[in-house]
Amino acid sequence: MDKFLNTVESKLGPLAQKLDRNRYLTAIKDGFFVAMPLLIIGSAFLLLTQLPIKPYLAFMENTLGKDWMSYFLVVNTMTMNIMTLFVVLGIARSLAKHYKMDSVSSQAIALLAFLILTPVMSDANGAEGLPIANFGAAGLFVGMISAVLAVELTRGVVSKGWVIKMPEAVPSNVANSFSALIPGFIVAIIFNLVRIIFLTTSFETAHNFVFELLQKPLLSLGSSLPALIILLLFEAALWAFGIHGSNIMLAVMTPIWTALAVENAEAFARGDVLPNIVNMQFYSNYIKLGGASGTIGLAIACMFFAKSSQYKMLGKLSFAPSIFNINEPLIFGVPIVLNPIMLIPFILCPLVLGVLSYVVMALGIVPITNGLQLPWTMPPIFSGFILSGWRGAVFQIVEIFISFLIFFPFFKVEDRKALAIEKEG
């Protein structure tokens, strides 16, 4: 194992170091670090509403009423569901510090740029508001581009001296606010022109452009094994750029996979042969072990095998949510997004788990899922037992071990790098 780890590190280490010095990737990574503690908080409150324990759910409903979940989901909404706002601020701050610019004004201008591209919605009564869906993971791609371009435009304007300069006697905070006036004005003009251009197209907004561009290829995919492989590759690739691949894919595939699961449930009730291997339960419970891309093995590695303080703490914070298939703390805390080392197992693991699960069910080694509707937070092993009996539970244990083997070598490369940085102070 040490020899293999050294080989992986020798091959990928130089690439990782080179990418770590890239100012844009560094800024994006810093942006996710800003959002990470808030994501962990949001995950904890989400978990409180989704624990698959009937006595607990009954107690909470009897104590707080039928809408008890809304009391906790507010925190989740104000953290995970508007995470793009925090990421935009973090990216702008990091990039501004790299250029030795005023970080506060850069953050404000970057946020303005992103909000200009975000559509305003109104109801029949004329009330207006911003769609919160565009502030979550679905809006990350637009947010990252907006932050980077806004700071770069600001830097270009400042470098040309197109700023209002105040006398030295003026306090710095006042001087900085006036210095940001012309750069902010130019950024607003350019991003407003982009917004207008999108309005003249069938997409109408930049957010719709990203979604539609990714949604249409998914519409042509079916439920066969080759289609599943393509979908899993597509999902992981979207996550690689900070786009919530699971949400985008499921927006199209949920009706198809749910219908296939219902067919299985009906056949199971009649005692007939179950017709569909690929369905919603197959995807949720045999591929997404620990969350998107089957990251439960990575959570175990962080929890029990980390040497650096950074990953030890991340393991403690992410392990419990991963048991209930919540892995945003890992995806944005490692981070996996735009991390070429961790993207390798992140893309490979769901493919291995998906193909292997399909094969063992096609051969009859593990029973096909019976179509019972389970909450997506049902922990592995329990979900396997309910859907496929004891063989399903045993197979999920095997999958967890496979996930660990896939993620561990690449995790060690990151852990060693973090440990070396910590030792350097």
How would you characterize the overall build of this protein?
- It is a single chain.
- The protein is built from 18 helices and two strands.
- It is an all-alpha fold and 425 residues long.
- Strands 1-2 form a two-stranded antiparallel sheet.
- The longest helix has 42 residues, at 382-423.
**Helix and strand composition category:** mainly alpha
Biggest sheet, strands in spatial order? 1-2
- Count of DSSP-assigned helices: 18
How far the N terminus sits from the C terminus, by CA atoms, comes to 28 Å
Oligomer type: single chain
Compute the number of strand runs.
Answer: 2
Helix and strand layout, with pairings?
Elements: H1 2-20, H2 23-50, H3 54-64, H4 68-77, H5 83-98, H6 103-117, E1 121-122, E2 128-129, H7 140-159, H8 172-179, H9 181-199, H10 206-219, H11 225-240, H12 245-270, H13 280-286, H14 296-305, H15 309-323, H16 328-333, H17 340-362, H18 382-423
Antiparallel strand pairs: 1-2
Helix pairs in contact: 1-18, 2-4, 2-5, 5-6, 5-7, 6-7, 6-9, 7-9, 10-12, 11-12, 11-17, 14-15, 14-18, 17-18
Observed structural traits:
425 residues; mainly alpha; 18 helices; 2 strands; 1% strand
In short:
The protein is mostly helical and 425 residues long.
